[in-house]
Amino acid sequence: IAGITQAPTSQILAAGRRMTLRCTQDMRHNAMYWYRQDLGLGLRLIHYSNTAGTTGKGEVPDGYSVSRANTDDFPLTLASAVPSQTSVYFCASRLAGGHTQYFGPGTRLTVL
Amino acid sequence: TQLLEQSPQFLSIQEGENLTVYCNSSSVFSSLQWYRQEPGEGPVLLVTVVTGGEVKKLKRLTFQFGDARKDSSLHITAAQPGDTGLYLCAGPGGTSYGKLTFGQGTILTVHP
Q1: B99, B101, B106, best to mutate vs chain A, most A CBs in 10 Å
Q2: pLDDT tens per residue across all 112 residues of chain B
Q3: Is A103 on the interface with B (CB under 8 A)?
Q4: B19 Cβ partners below 8 Å, 6+ apart?
Q5: b vs e for A87-109, b when ≥16 Cβ sit within 10 Å of the residue's Cβ?
Q6: Which of chain B's residues have a Cβ under 8 Å away from the Cβ of A50?
């Protein structure tokens, strides 16, 4: 069982380019989350999905979009990347009724 | 938005020393969680505290939830280099079940 996988591991991107960060879980968890992590700011929620077919905005959603076509996959798209989106991005999942979030290994994104 | 303030932000100690990390809020939380994150990895849940005044122990780590459920602390006894990492507190955030609000984190370095 892999848990949560994220791809790519790291990416350097030119400003203005479109980028999709991939997240896949094999635990059949209902809820999934995308966070960005910046030094001194902790983890901030970008978007979330409580179940396949539904999504919601988190604390810092601007410039990002998500989709949840099925239980396993929760891609995060940056339509037109800007340097302020340079960060480490973590995907997480949670089983319905549970309190624990399980995190992927992260994607380090640099926007130049 | 319920905020969690962690202190200190950085902690550098020698092996064998004791330390305490604090997580404070002006809001009441139904529960608080502590996560530990190692470099290049995602956070991993250490403990969840749910009752005011609750104390939980995990080997050399002691977690306490304040009586008023507005604060929590993590105490490490006889720290070891393997304790090095980022420690994050988190509590339920927003109206959607399962969403978490994270503190800024405490970066702990234990020198041999």
Answers
A1: B99
A2: 668 999 999 999 999 999 999 999 999 998 999 999 998 899 999 999 999 999 999 999 999 999 999 999 999 999 999 999 999 999 987 666 678 899 999 999 999 9
A3: yes
A4: B11, B13, B75, B76, B79, B108
A5: bbbbbbbbeeeebebbbbbbbeb
A6: 96-98
